[in-house]
Automatic annotation (TrEMBL):
Record-level Gene Ontology MF annotations: phosphorelay response regulator activity; transcription cis-regulatory region binding
Gene transcribed to yield this protein: cseB
Response regulatory domain segment(s): 7-124
DNA-binding region: 138-233
Cited InterPro entries: CheY-like_superfamily (IPR011006), OmpR/PhoB-type_DNA-bd (IPR001867), Sig_transdc_resp-reg_C-effctor (IPR016032), Sig_transdc_resp-reg_receiver (IPR001789), WalR-like (IPR039420), WH-like_DNA-bd_sf (IPR036388)
Designated name of the protein: Transcriptional regulatory protein CseB
Pfam families: Response_reg, Trans_reg_C
GO cellular component terms attached to this protein's record: cytosol; protein-DNA complex
Protein's organism: Glutamicibacter uratoxydans (Arthrobacter uratoxydans)
Keywords of this entry: DNA-binding, Phosphoprotein, Transcription, Transcription regulation, Two-component regulatory system
Species lineage: Bacteria, Bacillati, Actinomycetota, Actinomycetes, Micrococcales
Keyword DNA-binding: yes
Region (Disordered): 127-148
Domain (OmpR/PhoB-type): residue spans on this chain: 138-233
Transmembrane feature ranges: none
Length: 236
C-alpha cells in the first residue's frame, strides 16, 4: 500500500504536536488535515462523510468542548472510518474507554512516527478487507436457539435474533469460528485482525474480547490462560 493520496484527519488540541505530526505524515505521503476541537472535528466529519470522506482519523482523548471518546461514539453513528485514539497519559482506562467508544486502535503519546505509520497502514488494510473478509468454514444461518454465523452475508444471530458487531469484532469471531475448539493465540489475532504483531499492547485484544463476549455470550468464548482464546462449540 502506498500512502500517496491517503487522507487523514488529525484531531489534536496541542498545536505543536498537531503540526509536527502532520508534517511528518505529509513527508510519508499522507494528506493531513488538522483540527483542535472535538465538536469542530465531529461537525467536519459529518460534512466530509456526505461529500468526500477521509480515510482515517487520529483522535486525541483530551479535547476541548467534546472529548475524543464522545467524538468517537457519535462518529460511529454515521461512519465506520478507521479511528486511532491518542492519549498523552497512556493510562489503561483511556484505552478501554476509547475502544469501547468504537476506536479501532490506540496509541500512547509520545509515539514514534514510524510506529504511527505502521498502525495507520494496518487499520487501512483492515478497512479495505472488511468488504471481503477471510472465508471461514461454510455455515448457513440457523433459526434454532444458539449462535449462528453467516460468513457470506456477515450476519450473526443469537437465539434467532440478529446482533450488531463492529468490523473488528466480526473479524475476530470469524477467525475463532474457522476451527471451533482450537486455541487461537493473541499474536495470531493481532497479525490477522490488526495487521501487526510488534509494539503491541495485548490489552487491545482483551477489550475487544470483553465486548464480543457481552454480545454473543461469555460462555461461548473461552480464555486459555497463557495461550489465547477459543470458540466453545462453534456456531450453528
Amino acid at each position: 500500500m502506498t500512502n500517496t493520496g491517503i487522507r487523514v484527519l488529525m484531531v489534536e488540541d496541542d498545536e505543536v504536536i498537531r503540526e509536527a505530526t502532520g508534517i511528518g505524515l505529509a513527508r510519508l505521503g499522507y494528506q493531513v488535515q488538522g483540527v483542535g476541537d472535538g465538536l469542530e472535528a465531529l461537525e467536519l466529519l459529518r460534512q466530509l462523510q456526505a461529500e468526500d470522506p477521509v480515510d482515517a482519523v487520529l483522535l486525541d482523548v483530551m479535547l476541548p468542548t467534546m472529548n475524543g471518546t464522545q467524538v468517537c461514539q457519535q462518529l460511529r453513528g454515521f461512519s465506520s472510518v478507521p479511528v486511532i485514539m491518542l492519549s498523552a497519559r497512556g493510562e489503561g482506562i483511556d484505552m478501554v474507554t476509547g475502544l469501547d467508544a468504537g476506536a479501532d486502535d490506540y496509541l500512547a503519546k509520545p509515539f514514534d512516527l514510524q510506529v504511527l505509520d505502521a498502525r495507520l497502514r494496518a487499520v487501512l488494510r483492515r478497512s479495505q478487507r472488511s468488504a471481503q473478509p477471510p472465508a471461514p468454514k461454510a455455515s448457513e444461518p440457523a433459526h434454532a436457539p444458539g449462535l449462528s454465523i453467516d460468513p457470506h452475508r456477515l450476519v450473526v444471530s443469537l437465539e434467532g435474533r440478529q446482533i450488531h458487531l463492529t468490523p473488528t469484532e466480526m473479524r475476530i469471531l470469524l477467525m475463532l469460528d474457522r476451527e471451533p475448539g482450537m486455541v487461537v493465540s493473541r499474536t495470531e489475532i493481532l497479525t490477522e485482525v490488526w495487521g501487526y504483531s510488534w509494539d503491541a499492547d495485548h490489552r487491545v485484544i482483551d477489550v475487544h474480547m470483553q465486548r464480543l463476549r457481552r454480545k454473543v455470550g461469555a460462555e461461548r468464548i473461552e480464555t486459555v490462560r497463557g495461550f489465547g482464546y477459543r470458540l466453545a462449540g462453534g456456531s450453528s
